[in-house]
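Collaborator request, handled under Task 6.
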Amino acid sequence: MSHDPSPPEPSYLTYPWQPPPPRPPEPRHVPHRAPVGHHSDLRVLRGAYRLQRRTATLTALGYFTLFLVLSAFAPGVMTSTVADGVPAGLLLAVLQLPVTWLAIALYEHTARRRVDPLADRIRKTAELDARRGAAR
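Structure tokens returned to the collaborator:
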């Protein structure tokens, strides 16, 4: 059995000069949805951005790694001629630039198609939340 050592507070003022007790705060209006910082759209946006980065990075670095592996472990493939005395290694090296451009184009395409619409929706929601907060 626990015993509270503090005496109970009286419901009346013990001294006439004592200020009245503060009123309890009025309940605030709770929004019908969570604020933007805890919104599920942020998780979706982070996932889309992560997928976008991985896809573009693996495209560029994957090709470069393939080129390095072929150079180190398959010199016969790299020295073989493809057309009119052009070695395959030189052709693969020259193709690195277009593959890098492809990775950049893929990054921009996925940004326009998946990431930017999510970010715009979150931005508009945040603006609405800010306006609602300012109106209170």
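The cover message to the collaborator said: "The beta strands are 81-83, 86-87. The longest strand covers residues 81-83. Please let us know whether this matches your experimental observations."
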